[in-house]
Amino acid sequence: MNTLARLEHVTRRFGDVTALDNVSLEIGSGRIVGLLGPNGAGKSTLLSLLQGLRRPTSGTVELFGGSPGDHHNRRMLGCTPQETALPPTLRVGEVLDYVGAHFENPAPKQELAEQFGFADLLRRQTGSLSGGQKRRISVALAFVGRPKLVLLDEPTTGLDVDARKVLWAAVQAQQAAGATVVVTSHYLEEIEALAERVVVIGEGRVLADDDLSSVLEQVGLRMLRLTTEHPDAVSALPEVVDTRAEEDGAHTFFVRDADEAVRALVHSGVPFHGLSVRGASLEEAFLTLTGGAGAQPVHLNAKGSN
Length: 306
Known about the structure:
By secondary structure, the protein is α/β, with parallel strands linked by helices.
């Protein structure tokens, strides 16, 4: 597997804020890699370094074996930023033609438009489109030049459920045709739908780097909220990962399997009331896995460049 991009002990600071803290990461060819983490975790900063838009404060960033700051090394790189900006007076087809003219062998316009679900918009001015329509076009533009590596930063921002699924299918088709894709998201569902390898980032550090199923086991926590006079007994149940006392006297218990945890709770005979169950947000799961907001993040089954 060829290494397309690499970060070695990279730190990036913005004044007193450390956006990335000693991150080492390799992106090999042929896969969809998900960068998963809450807002502000450092995902967009990492992509900006790979694009050559920023330089690391310390450490080394490589793109196709050289510096991302060298435009020759960016010729086979496709990108879609979080913010969508298209020339409002140009038609969609004209935008695709304009971008495609910068490449030796661009992808066919009609084929790309059909794949990303906007073939009926080719003659429309981009200024007349909805935010979701613009977003789909912006993501498609990242693939116009048949790049080897594509960086997608929060690609489904502003899309409804159906449009997200169309975009996911298009990205998977591009990967099957040979593109390596790195996609950032704070939606667990999105990474689960797309990625084969998942890198979890929190507070500027790599918390986990593994295949999808292994990472889901780490961040797919559920929360049982209940009131009991015996929280220590509930915390001792085998499914419970962590416990949080609430201001109203209730307790929240983080568990890996809610069904098993409830069964174990009932069988234990511990009296309780006011039971509710919900999924933990990624941020809540990260804080639990790292031992709290001030704790040092732990590396969970890190596999490097797989």
